[in-house]
Amino acid sequence: MSQYTKEIEKRRTFAIISHPDAGKTTLTEKFLLYGGAINLAGSVKGKATARHAVSDWMEIEKERGISVTSSVLQFHYDDYCINILDTPGHQDFSEDTYRTLMAADSAVMVIDGSKGVEAQTRKLFKVCVMRHIPIFTFINKMDRDANDTFELLDEIEKELGIATCPINWPIGSGKNFRGVYDRNTRKVLTFSDTQKGTKEGVEEEISVDDSRLDEVISQEQKEQLLEEIELLDGASAEFDQEQVSQGKLSPVFFGSALTNFGVETFLKHFLKMTTSPLPRLADCGVVDPMEEDFSAFVFKIQANMNKNHRDRIAFMRICSGKFEASREVYHVQGEKKMRLSQPQQLMAQDRHVVEEAYAGDIIGVFDPGIFSIGDTVCAPGKKFAYEGIPTFAPEHFARVRQMDTMKRKQFVKGINQIAQEGAIQIFQEFNTGMEEIIVGVVGVLQFDVLKYRLKNEYNVEILLENLPYEHIRWIENKDEVDVRRLTGTSDMKKVTDLKGNPLLLFINSWSVGMTLDRNEGLVLSEFSRN
Ligand code: GDP
To answer: Mean pLDDT across the chain, nearest whole number?
Structure first.
């Protein structure tokens, strides 16, 4: 046990996942309000940056300072030290969004009560499942007409394949929203307008058996509530901390982030039910966060968009021990001792230099171009590497054509560097070498990023020709399969990634199944761990 145990135990590091507009930003703001990090629940990030056309890309990048600052937030609440990882959505959705989840110990899933499970939530959820981290559900916007509560839970269970356990239960929705019933205390937390959530709401708790409740909810609503509770007690999974910790059971809460209702209740329960920093797998075995020696891994690299400053920021998740800025660390992949330069941490809206940080915390360090995603840094004298970060399946593909073929060298250098940072993935046609380059991205905005950066940083202009592929699969058992002899469908294309791994691209999702049928023993995967 290290002397830092106390500090590490009070840390809670989680990501909030949702489909755009479900209320992730609003909920984060309210968390900060409770944490006292901001006085009024003002804007966490400039709203303008969240909604923009692709052509405004330069503007986004100018404001990237803001987006960087809001990508990790630290604040204190009760005795906890909380790190929230932002998962960029909208056009900002990219592979980084997935990678961020690799640094979290749990996830809060925000669902719009009138929409249910939506596309982006589904995608992000898959990554949480792969990691077996606890997942908590906040069903938001109950002040608007919501879908039937049982149907919402049913949808989560069926679509996402996770059992649910409602911790509280909503009474009505929209104009008839009266509050939530806590199944444990048997008390109703009554809903009152909190001036659009700019104040911490005055929430009143009334026992379900107290006659005062009749002043708040109609007889009809009360009957419905009692009926639903009875149904629920008989039908839903019981709360089981073990199952929650393994990511098999999601505790569900209801509320309205905008009016700041149900948020503090959620935060309190969540902090108790979620986990302190989790151990992590490395090539030397599992590393305990409480270990004395510092270690961390890089999960995201943010390029500086100012071409006069080609430096980057590498985001690291501390996995064990304590980080001290004055001490040397060892960069395992670079095989070098070094001092991490200008380590920064973000507290609400302020970015400040950190002198020390603990397991569970995220720091951003100045990167002159030496780090790659997944790299490990640890205490000098130690030498182990954390399990790598998988490569996630791109969803959009384009063929790259270079306008000026004389600049081949710059082009190859630029595109390789940008790929190394993890903004794009590049593929070559199977068996043809570098002539034809296909780029794959998770979010389409990355195409513009590529074009802009090649032009501005490498002075190379390119044309992108969109390709119709939408599904990509790595060949898991590539050593057992003769890729040249694979028979697929007519829409299938064979390519290789930067590391020479063979992959298959498909236009139609059914082609994936067809190809598996036609090639016995073939194992395909949506992630690459190589
Ligand atoms: P994000 O895209 O998930 O970050 O969503 P935002 O937090 O930006 O919210 C999207 C829109 O929904 C904004 O206009 C919010 O004001 C609104 N919103 C968020 N939470 C609630 C809520 O509880 N009730 C209502 N009625 N609107 C909400």
So the answer is: 86
Distance CA 288, CA 473 (A): 33
The predicted-structure confidence for 288-314, as pLDDT tens digits, reads as follows 999 999 999 999 887 765 555 566 788
Task: State pLDDT tens for residues 144-202.
Answer: 999 999 999 999 999 999 999 999 999 999 999 999 999 999 999 998 765 555 555 56
How far apart are the CA of 24 and the centre of ligand 1, in A?
A: 7
Task: Locate the ligand 1 atom nearest the alpha carbon of residue 28 and give its number.
Answer: 7
**106: CA distance to ligand 1 center in Å?**
22
% of the chain at pLDDT higher than 90: 60
Q: Is 257 in the pocket of ligand 1 (CB under 6 A)?
A: yes
Task: Output the CA 258–ligand 1 centroid distance in Å.
Answer: 6
Q: Is 22 in the pocket of ligand 1 (CB under 6 A)?
A: yes
List, for residues 40-94, the tens digit of each pLDDT value: 333 344 333 333 322 233 344 444 433 333 467 888 899 999 999 888 766 667 8
Which atom of ligand 1 approaches the CA of 89 most closely? 2
> Whole-angstrom Cα distance, residue 294 to residue 177?
49
Distance CA 323, CA 352 (A): 15
Residue ranges and CATH numbers for the domains of the chain are 13-273 (3.40.50.300), 280-378 (2.40.30.10), 391-528 (3.30.70.3280)
Q: 141: CA distance to ligand 1 center in Å?
A: 7
- The span from the CA of 278 to the CA of 247, in Å, is 13
Closest CA to 137 of 23, 228, 33, 10: 23
Mean pLDDT of 404-422: 87
Tokens found for residue 253: 């809460």
Mean pLDDT of all residues in 331-340: 93
Instruction: Give residue-wise pLDDT tens across range 504-516.
Output: 999 999 999 999 9
Written as six digits, the tokens of 129 are 């499942």
258 lines ligand 1 (CB under 6 A): yes
Please report the atom of ligand 1 found closest to the CA of residue 257. 23
Whether this model's ipTM surpasses 0.95 comes out as yes
Say if ligand 1 is within 6 A of residue 140 CB.
Answer: yes
**Furthest C-alpha separation in the chain:** 83
Taking the whole predicted model, whether its pTM rises above 0.80 is answered as yes
- Centre of ligand 1 to C-alpha 248, Å, is 28
- From the CA of 89, how far away is ligand 1's center (Å)? 14
Residue closest via CA to ligand 1's atom 14 equals 21
- Which residue(s) pair with 441 in the sheet? 396
Cβ–ligand 1 distance for 134 under 6 Å, the answer: no
- Cβ atoms of residues 377 and 316 within 8 Å: yes
- Cα separation, 281 vs 288, in Å, equals 9
Q: Quick check: 2 pLDDT over 70?
A: no
